[in-house]
Specification:
alpha+beta; Sulfite Oxidase, Chain A, domain 2; eight-stranded mixed β-sheet; 13 strands; 17% helix; globular
Amino acid sequence: MLIRIKTSADIPSSEITPEHVYRSRRDFIRVAAAGAVGAVAGTVLSGGGGGVDAQASLAALPNAKRNSAFVVDETVDPLTSYEQITTYNNYYEFGTRKSQPAQNAHILKVRPWTVKVDGLVNKPGDYGLEDLVDFNQLEERVYRHRCVEAWSMVMPFIGVPLSSVLKRVEPRPSATFVEFTTVFRQSEMPLWERAGIELPYIEGLRMDEALHPLTLMAVGLYGKVLPNQCGAPLRVHIPWKYGFKSGKSIVRIRLTDKQPLNTWQLQRADEYGFYANVNPTVPHPRWPQDREQRLPSPFKERKTLMFNGYADQVASLYSGMDLKKFY
């Protein structure tokens, strides 16, 4: 499938507030630490409530290099608006209704941020965000995003390939899986007891999936740093898989030789498998997956594409596998 990049010049001014672009990663970290990412400026803007109003204060990212290999045909897949992306979210620690994460996630403190890397790596340790992600090598990519609940969006993410992050920590040859653990702070997650799932949230990938060029470690969205409800300051995104595979606010990356037991698989193994590849031929036990609702449309009027439209790039990863068994 031919796909085309969305450049920053193509983004309407209504979608991105003009701001100075910070060219060095250290400048970005300094500005973010001053409160551009967190709730401080949001509190000023919204009179103390934070939430969606805080998004106008989010810092611009350094110039991201456009990657023409990772885009969509916008005549078929127009971009979802920034407002829609940031107000319709799954982040159960901040509420199970789609509107609640945007209302509550501003409480989460995302600076400073440390990611523990351990397991089968030659360079384990506690890494600062700027030590894992090269902010001078950020890419702008436009990805389709498909949720297992049958809604979808098109998102202009900014980040680096997960492979570049893993290269820094030097996985050992025996490492065959990557496990991600997301942040869990009860004092900053007021609705965590209503989440209905085991916390902290855990996800995982096979090593070849993690190293695939499509797999992104995202730090930005629509030219700005990630809002908290979208997984600030660091999330993984795997565009050919259902959205629950894309762990938000990652605080640990563990390399292992055993398949991780991800949170939703632990919760409901009959509904959520380890692979979670977008597959219209495998229905969810409570609803079909052959159609999807492309927000903001209220209707399931789109045909679901195998591997979310990325079959040409990733189908070979699963050659010979029964994808109805390994769902």
